[in-house]
Amino acid sequence: MGRRSSSNQPNEFLFEEGGGRGTHLHSKSVPSLLKTITSAFKDKKSIVADDQVRTMGASFSHLGLSNDVVSSVVSLPSSNTGKKSSSKSKNLQRWTSSGLSTPRDSEHYTDLDDDWDSNVENCLTSVNSQPKFIENKPTFEYPLIRKISSGVKSSTDDGALALYAPHILQEEESHKELEEMNAKLSRYHRFKHLVEESTVDMDKLKKMAWNGIPSELRPISWQLLVGYLPTNSNRREAQLHRKRQEYLGLIEQEFTKEKDAQTWHQIEIDIPRTNPRIKLYGFKSTQRSLERILYLWAVRHPASGYVQGINDLATPFYQTFLSAYIKDETDVTQFDPSTLPKDSIDAIEADTFWCLTKLLEGIQDNYIHAQPGIIRQVNELKDLVRRIDTELSNHLDDENVEFIQFSFRWMNCLLMREISMESTIRMWDTYLSEPNGFSEFHVYVCAAYLVKWSDELKKMDFQAIMMFLQDPPTKNWTEKDVELLLSEAFIWQSLYKNATAHLRG
């Protein structure tokens, strides 16, 4: 998957997924490369990508973990990596126009997501047993991992013999799976070694993280990438202690006096509507934590205050940092944080608050009065799509579809309503690795996302277009789908970012 060169001339090379210098972006090679990636993207061909590697313990977070290493034989499921997916997208339904009038400009825009009407009271089921969590306070120690040895005998190269010896094919498949596992473990160790260095090389971390971060190392990697943790490992423990104590002091200060009624009321309304299909966000403990985080951010940033959509942006941080405190066999999306010690809950809240604050510093124009940052991004998206896919742009104009009508939510919630939380978290690995990932690169991602549906959209009228874009067929996207989207966005950015006139009318 693509990655920007670290040379003085950005976008000069595309890097392959495994690392190393790849294709040079000469003008003669770009059309062929672009055609190949676009074709693969539309056909939903699989690309080989590192899956998440689960190990005992989680990133930097726990004392007292056993140092026992994996020593038993690992049984792996069979895979068909590299083959085209057998599942096909459902045929898109074409809706006929119901006589909607031509849309008019408005001073206010609202979110039409049906999540606001979800009955979240019935989403929860009783917890039969409490998942196990790690009781110790977070530090920066990591569990050891032993590289798996395949121990597979060499198989014959005679294809005819394989027809009479199915076990040989099984051995070959097992050998491939073990090689893949070893590659994942090797990648994990490279990440682990990098974040454990006395001074982390941030350029190297960004380059590696662009292609995805192992889940066990995501908490510390995100905190480094966002600038919450210092690169000097000797300062991290003191920094965490200080920032967490500062957060608790601010909470005590703000919650012992009368609250801002309007802000608190809006937060109380939005919290139950946040990720209603994920059980984690229905637990009272999660909701109380998010209320405190969002209210504190709002009162400390009066220029914007609380704006609908900020609640969504807090959740990837919260879920990622929570994962560092639970055992690996536990599904974080099903976990009730109330089973954790209070010190752990406080730490998760504090880390989420400070990282959310860092993120919003770069896109605060999206949430001040009149939200000029979002309006700018929508206009940039419109101009970019006109250059990438003129036919689609003209069709949207012919059908009187305004970009603000469907892409306002894309900018306000960073596509979180369009893809799953798992896909969002993977996307943020790349966003946090980009210089302006959430403000600039996100526009290119939105362009790639819209152009992906070009063939279907050009056959639809106004009503069908709006209905399709409000509920696109992306809920079951995998990490590979997201990586294809990011790859295509990288291509558009490589072609257009340094063209000074491309985002002018």
TrEMBL record:
Molecular function in Gene Ontology: GTPase activator activity
Residue ranges of every copy of the Rab-GAP TBC domain listed in the record: 212-435
Ranges of biased composition (kind: Polar residues): 1-11, 92-103
InterPro entries xrefs: Rab-GAP-TBC_dom, Rab-GAP_TBC_sf
In this chain, composition skew of type Low complexity spans 74-90
Q: Region (Disordered): which ranges?
A: 1-27, 74-109
Q: Which Gene3D superfamilies match?
A: putative rabgap domain of human tbc1 domain family member 14 like domains, Ypt/Rab-GAP domain of gyp1p, domain 1, Ypt/Rab-GAP domain of gyp1p, domain 3
Q: Say which domain of life the source belongs to.
A: Eukaryota
Give the SMART domains listed for this entry: TBC
A GO CC term assigned to this protein in UniProt? Golgi apparatus
Q: Which PANTHER family match?
A: LD44506P, TBC1 DOMAIN FAMILY MEMBER GTPASE-ACTIVATING PROTEIN
The molecule here is called: Rab-GAP TBC domain-containing protein
UniProt source species? Cyberlindnera jadinii (strain ATCC 18201 / CBS 1600 / BCRC 20928 / JCM 3617 / NBRC 0987 / NRRL Y-1542) (Torula yeast)
